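REQUEST FORM: STRUCTURE PREDICTION
Request ID: SP-0412
Submitted by: Lab K.M.
Chain count: 1
Length (residues): 409
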Amino acid sequence: MDFTAASQSPTQFRLWSGIAMIAAALERRVWARSGKYVTYPNLYVMLVANPGVGKQVIEEARGVFQHVRFPNTTNNAFKVASDSATRASLIDELAKSKTTFQVTGGDPPLVHSSLAVFSEEFQVLLPAYDQDFVSRLNKLYNGGDKHDESRRTGTQREVKIENPLLNILAGAQPAYLADTFPENAWATGICRRLVMVHATEGPFISIFDEPTDIDDCLEQMDYLLAQMSQLYGHVKWHPESVTIVQEFETENHKKNAGLQDKKLGHWPQPDHTRLVHYNRSRTMMVIKLGIVAAIAARCEMMILPSDLHRAIGWLLQAEATMPDIFREMRGRSDYEVMIEVHRYVMGIWGTDKASGVGAERIFNFIQERVPSEKVERIFSLMEKSAMLSRIAGTDKFVPKPVYEHKKTE
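STATUS: Completed
RESULT:
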């Protein structure tokens, strides 16, 4: 965060770029066990914003990550996909990333193929929705023992990858998601595995501002990432951490099942219809982020309660703005939204003209159609343009006929 403090990227984009770097640095060498399940910390992180909002932090992260060396050597510590990696070349690059990690203590070496993808435009990787390729991404995310492919063309007809794992930090625009992902895609595995981080604008930084000295930050990151490249084994659970994950899982399960419980509400859950299937993967996300938080804090193979609270905080912050992505995907102007709101209020008021329509009801309607930071602005514009008129001394409104507010567009 210090390294990118002078960046025009939104704070949450900078944060998640750092999280993604640590997840990628741990490759398949670090994992957590929960019952019979093994969870690797790899992530598919997508920074979603309109053009010019600051997704260039992805390239800054890439620049740092690909220059890290193994301690006391000149060898690159990590395998990074090429700038213009496409769906056709990605699998080949993953196969070429095969690495043998020498495990201390007499255990056999770990042979794995771990690849980190840093792509400012996810559209390069997936220009059109390809169900076959998306299925491959799902499989690689899960960290299976192998990945085999047979091809009809090319010099290499058979591709066999041992212990593959993929990390992705990519950028996307709402318009791209709207044009590329069909409606049924949001019910598939890839959307369950995406952590989508949304922002509408970054901080204003003058082009003449002098950047702070970042050499120390860069040196520290190089050192810490190099240390992470040597970690191996499963992270242990503090007993209280197990309790936190179990409580999170129980609450999440009850909410997914639609169960009403007054005790539920400790950890809010995204409520957009396109995130129903994502919600089923939240416990897995918490475990992955718990590993990252533990390594980020102390480079220690133990998940403490403080690590989980930090991890859940990261996730809740990202989830709070996920519904805004789908609102922006509609691509409508403010005025088009205002017309829709006006029709809605007119419909309610038409059945009961004795009383106006409550502000809360109008707010909720607007909130379903635009990003949260636009709600106040839309509401204010409608009042100023006389599309809505407040009943004196109340928090209720009546819609003005179209011919009256047209003059003040």
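NOTES: The two ends are 43 Å apart (CA to CA).
Reviewed by: T.R.
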